Amino acid sequence: MNGNTCFSALKERILKDGKCLEGGILKVDGFINHQIDPDLLEQMSVEFIKRFAAVEYNKILTIEASGIAPAIMLGFLLHLPVVFAKKKKPSTMDNMLTTTVFSFTKNRSYDVCCSKDFLKPGDKVLFIDDFLANGNAAKGIIDLVQKAGAEIAGMGFLIEKSFQHGGDYLREQGIKVESLAIIDSLDNCAIKFRD
Ligand code: 5GP
């Protein structure tokens, strides 16, 4: 198994329930982003566990909101802590790391933060998110992890849209990237998977 192989249960579900929107956006609200299918989530987490079996990590990191569900499922199965980077600075947080991320779906920048209490020097983190598109969220996470003195052990995405090239950038950095479904094109609202 490697980062170029589609996980068939997810691929089939996308074909059945995924919807294409204008501008290269895939809507998966029926099973990932709004209503959540915990059974599929569990199967996908088991697949991540297999794909990252050779990697050492002590923490799962994600970004709110849509990464939280897959990250929790993985953390639950592995009995590892799950940390989510927050999109709004809590007034009660002082010991903080911050970075700025550009959102492709919302077409604006926002700050992301994480407490130094939960991302520490020496941590080896596996980052999990729902989508990899241009890689902006992932770049923000790399910045936060570097600022913390921690290390990225790998990055796992449920769905990668290869035509937006975030994956190319991350793999060029030497990061182990695993995506459970890779979509090469959404042109004319037809979902074209990599095999
Ligand atoms: P990136 O930062 O890699 O450009 O985009 C990743 C983030 O944008 C993900 O966390 C996800 O929330 C959102 N995103 C990007 N593309 C899509 C898409 O096609 N569908 C949905 N539902 N979210 C997307």
Automatic annotation (TrEMBL):
GO terms for molecular function: xanthine phosphoribosyltransferase activity. Keywords: Cytoplasm, Glycosyltransferase, Membrane, Purine salvage, Transferase, Transmembrane, Transmembrane helix. One of its GO terms (cellular component) is cytoplasm. Gene3D superfamilies: 3.40.50.2020. Xanthine binds at residues 26, 33, 161. It holds the Pfam family Pribosyltran. It is found in: Cytoplasm. The keyword GTP-binding does not apply. Its EC number is 2.4.2.22. 5-phospho-alpha-D-ribose 1-diphosphate binds at residues 133-137. It is an enzyme of class 2 (transferase). Its main location: cytoplasm. Residues 60-161 form the Phosphoribosyltransferase domain. Belongs to the purine/pyrimidine phosphoribosyltransferase family. Xpt subfamily. Converts the preformed base xanthine, a product of nucleic acid breakdown, to xanthosine 5'-monophosphate (XMP), so it can be reused for RNA or DNA synthesis. This is Xanthine phosphoribosyltransferase.
